[in-house]
């Protein structure tokens, strides 16, 4: 399991941004190996963390190479005041079982 966390400072979102963002979410969800996504805003509202979960590295890389994703990356300055990406390999995940999450509980999955 891999996580690609896209952390950014929002700028001016326009209709093009909203449409492209929706298309990218659909593309990600349609790729084999996509596990889910979630987004968080910092307490001060200045940063957003959009995390995408992937069952394997090949799926993550397929999304990274997708032409629409590359198009969005070329235009990022139109919509973001800065960004940082963190790609992580998940060693384990666990909880009390009450929260649904894209990363399965490794204790319950036998891992």
From TrEMBL:
One of its GO terms (molecular function) is monooxygenase activity. InterPro entries: ABM_dom (IPR007138), Dimeric_a/b-barrel (IPR011008), Monooxy_af470 (IPR025444). Pfam families: Monooxy_af470-like. Transmembrane segments: none annotated. Residues 1-90 form the ABM domain. Keywords: Monooxygenase, Oxidoreductase. This is Antibiotic biosynthesis monooxygenase. It comes from Cupriavidus malaysiensis.
């Amino acid at each position: 399991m891999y996580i690609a966390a896209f952390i950014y400072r929002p700028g001016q979102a326009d209709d093009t941004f909203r449409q492209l963002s929706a298309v990218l979410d659909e593309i990600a969800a349609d790729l084999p190996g996509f596990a889910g996504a979630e987004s968080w805003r910092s307490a001060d509202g200045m940063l957003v963390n959009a995390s995408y979960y992937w069952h394997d590295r090949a799926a993550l890389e397929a999304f990274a190479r997708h032409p629409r994703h590359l198009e969005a990356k070329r235009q990022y300055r139109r919509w973001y005041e800065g960004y940082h990406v963190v790609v992580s390999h998940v060693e384990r995940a666990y909880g009390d079982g009450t929260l649904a999450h894209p990363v399965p509980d490794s204790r319950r999955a036998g891992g």
